[in-house]
Design a protein that fits this description.
This protein has a 4-stranded antiparallel beta sheet with strand order 1-2-3-4. By secondary structure, the protein is of the alpha+beta class. It has one domain. The protein is about 55% helix and about 10% strand. A hairpin with a 2-residue loop joins strand 3 and strand 4.
């Protein structure tokens, strides 16, 4: 008895949108539905970042502090042509394409790493997704405006934390979580426990 042509069945399943067929189909082994879900989180961070920057550009005057929580938190629009905390801000412009390229390179590496993660490795997938979304949000600013729009200012008495944005928050939270994951010992399986 002749075996049915599996490639035709797999092709039909792919056209029909069968996720399980996609995962086992020849030539598309790299598609990981879990990675795609985490990339949607990256997209959400990117969109939230760009929407809040648009709001800041239209609702907050330049360099005017608007109190949100008196004595602690202001809305204050400012621009950062440099890296985090204003580093390289006065470097003359060469830093903008370099920082944008660095953000795109790191994002590409994290997307690649995200696709290689085991399906249940959410403790790394979430931080990777946050860093990707934040890095792309700030890269979009550098490429479109030549500088990053910041609008969240925290302070205590005379100490002012550098003004930041949603992308910066995502990058910091993601980076801290990645570092914390690196410091935690791996879980032992039941067969390894003493």
């Amino acid at each position: 008895m002749r075996q049915p042509d599996r490639s035709k069945r797999t092709g039909d399943a792919l056209r029909a949108g069968d996720v399980h067929a996609r995962q086992g189909a020849p030539g598309v082994e790299g598609i990981r539905t879990s990675a795609i879900a985490w990339l949607l989180l990256s997209l959400a961070v990117l969109l939230l970042d760009q929407a809040t920057k648009w709001w800041a550009m239209t609702a907050i005057p330049d360099d005017v502090a608007i109190a949100v929580v008196e004595g602690w938190w202001n809305w204050r629009r400012s621009y950062n042509p440099g890296a985090a905390f204003g580093l390289l801000g006065g470097a003359g412009g060469w830093q903008r394409p370099v920082l944008a390229a660095l953000a795109l390179g790191v994002s590409a590496y994290l997307v690649y790493s995200l696709y290689r993660l085991p399906r249940r490795a959410w403790r790394l997938a979430v931080p990777y997704a946050l860093v990707i979304g934040g890095a792309l949000g700030n890269a979009a600013d550098r490429l479109s405006r030549g500088q990053v729009v910041d609008f969240i200012q925290w302070y205590w008495r005379d100490f002012f934390w550098p003004t930041f944005n949603v992308a910066d928050m995502a990058i910091v939270i993601g980076a801290v979580a990645i570092a914390a994951n690196g410091l935690m010992p791996p879980k032992l399986s039941q067969g390894q426990a003493s």
